[in-house]
Amino acid sequence: MLGHDHNQVEELNSAHCNSQSNFATVKTLIQIEGLRKTYQIGTQEVHALDGLDLRIDQNEYVALMGPSGSGKSTLMNVLGCLDSPTSGSYHLNGQNVARLDENALAEIRNREIGFVFQTFNLLPRYSALENVALPLIYAGMSKKQRIERAEEVLEMVGLKDRMVHKPNELSGGQRQRVAVARALVNKPSIILADEPTGNLDTSTSMEIMGLFGAIQQAGNTVILVTHEEDIAACAQRIVRLRDGKVEADNA
C-alpha cells in the first residue's frame, strides 16, 4: 500500500499521470476466456459480451474504453463480481469466479475489489472517516481497528485534516479522495474505477489520476473505465472494446 509520508503522496500527485511503474509483472491476476453475457429483451437477444478474451497482470494500470454499447460497463460489472457471465471463464487470482453464487461473489468483492464511482457514493450523514471505515464492518474488524485503518488510508490520500468533515463540507476532489480511500481500506487486489473523473474539472481530474498513479506504483492493480482519451492516456495500457469484444489492446 501507499506509505505514510504525506509529502511523498503529494509529490506523486504533482506528477499527475506521467509516472510509470518500474515493477516487474510477477503474476496473472485476471484471466478471461470466451466471456459472454447475453440479455433477453423481449424476443431479442443482446450480446453485451461476445466471446471476449482478456488477461490483466498484477500491478498493471489499465483503461477500458469503447463507444456506448461496446460492453465496457458489462465487463466492469463482471470484473467487479457484481454480475455473472452467461458463459466463459473468469479467473481472479487463480479462482474461477464465473460460476460462484451471490454469497461467494459478495465475499470476493469485499476481500479482493475496491470500487470508485463517478458519483462518489458517500453516505451524506457520515464523516469521511466513517465512510471509509464502513466496509471494514463486514470484514469483522473491531471498532478500534476500523478507525485506525481508516485514518491510515485517509492520510495516504492527503486528507489527514479532513477526516471529521461530512461530504457536503468537502470539494469534489476531496470527496473522490475519500472514495479512493474507502476503496483501499480493505487492501484489495484490484481498484476498479468507473468514470472516476466524470464529475470533476480538468485540474482536479489530473490530481485524482495522479493519485491512481501513486496507488499503482505502490503495488496495486488499477482498472478504470473512461470515455476521455486524456484520462485513458494516464494508464499504461488501453483496451478498446467494440460489440462485446476487444477491438484493440495497446500497451
The mean pLDDT is 89
Radius of gyration: 18 Å
In the CATH hierarchy, the architecture is: 3-Layer(aba) Sandwich
Q: Predict the CATH topology.
A: Rossmann fold
CATH class division: Alpha Beta
- Find the count of extended strands (DSSP E, 2+ residues): 10
Major sheet details: 6 strands, mixed
**Largest sheet: spatial strand order:** 6-7-8-3-9-10
Going by CATH, what is the homologous superfamily?
P-loop containing nucleotide triphosphate hydrolases
N-to-C CA distance: 24 Å
- Beta-strand residue percentage: 25-35%
The tally of helices reads 8
- Pairing-aware structural class of the strands and helices? alpha/beta
Q: How many separate domains?
A: 1
Portion of residues within helices:
25-40%
Shape label: globular
Output the helix-strand order: HEEEHEEHEHHHEHEHEE
Show unreliable segments.
Answer: none
This entry's quaternary arrangement is single chain
Description:
With 251 residues, the chain is α/β, with parallel strands linked by helices. The protein has a single domain (6-19, 27-250), classed as Rossmann fold (3-Layer(aba) Sandwich). It has eight helices and ten strands. Strands 6-7-8-3-9-10 form a six-stranded mixed beta sheet, sandwiched between helices. Helix 4 packs parallel to helix 6 (172-184), helix 5 packs across helix 6 and helix 6 (172-184) runs parallel beside helix 7.
Could you write a compact summary of the structure shown?
Helices cover 34% and strands 27% of the residues. It has 251 residues and is α/β, with parallel strands linked by helices.
